[in-house]
Amino acid sequence: MRILILVLLPTLLGGCVVGTIASTAVDVATLPVKVVSKSVDLATTSQAEADQNRGRALRKAEEAAGKRDREWQRQCRKAKARDEQCPPRPEAPTA
Predict the structure, then answer these.
(1) Could you identify which of 16, 22, 86, 89 might form a hypothetical disulfide with 76, taking C-beta atoms 3.0 to 4.6 angstroms apart as the criterion?
(2) What is the sign of the dihedral through the CA atoms of 74, 80, 82 and 88?
(3) CA 61, CA 14: separation in Å to the nearest integer?
(4) N-terminal to C-terminal alpha carbon distance within the chain
(5) Taking Cα atoms as reference points, which of 65, 50, 51 lies closest to residue 95?
(6) pLDDT tens digits for 52-87?
(7) Torsion of Cα atoms, 67 then 68 then 74 then 78, to 10°
């Protein structure tokens, strides 16, 4: 029985070695394509990414404008409590 296993073992494992070599050859051949496509993807901005970035910038600008307006309202309330004139309203920055 051991002799039969020893005779059949190289035959059965031969496919594994060939499969591994073929798989490695495919990986080596496709590696440059994967590297180039990944670098192009990192270097360019898709339309969806551009939209997300623009939306983020608009939200930050709106938050800053709201913060300036709340600060102005606070200063105006304090000025009115002291019977003074309100400071001028801050200008919105142009983009």
Answers:
(1) 86
(2) positive
(3) 66
(4) 84
(5) 65
(6) 999 999 999 999 999 999 999 999 999 999 999 998
(7) 160
